[in-house]
């Protein structure tokens, strides 16, 4: 699934790089912030489980 996501992202980069470049860059940055937040949240939950187990 990771490879499919990478290919889809590369395709979207190619499609949007001229018409909606600024909007797409903003969207990608926001998506990366959400990914980082979600990853931190998951890691924190795992940490709590390990500490309380």
Supply database-style keywords.
53 residues
What does this structure look like?
This protein has one domain (2-52). It starts with a helix and ends with a helix. It is built from two helices and no strands. The mean pLDDT is 83. It is an all-alpha fold and 53 residues long. Helix content is 94%, strand content 0%. It is elongated.
What layout of secondary structure does this protein have?
Blueprint: H1 2-19, H2 21-52
End-to-end CA span:
32 Å
Described by the principal axes of the CA atoms, the overall outline is elongated
Q: Specify Rg, calculated over alpha carbons.
A: 16 Å
**What percent of residues are in strands?**
under 5%
pLDDT average, as an integer? 83
Largest sheet: none
Integer count of domains: 1
Amount of helix: over 70%
Total number of helices: 2
Structural class from helices and strands?
mainly alpha
**SSE pattern:** HH
Q: How many strand elements?
A: 0
Give unreliable regions as ranges: none
Question: In a nutshell, what does this entry contain?
Answer:
The chain has 53 residues and is mainly alpha-helical. The protein contains two helices and no strands. It is elongated and about 50 Å long.
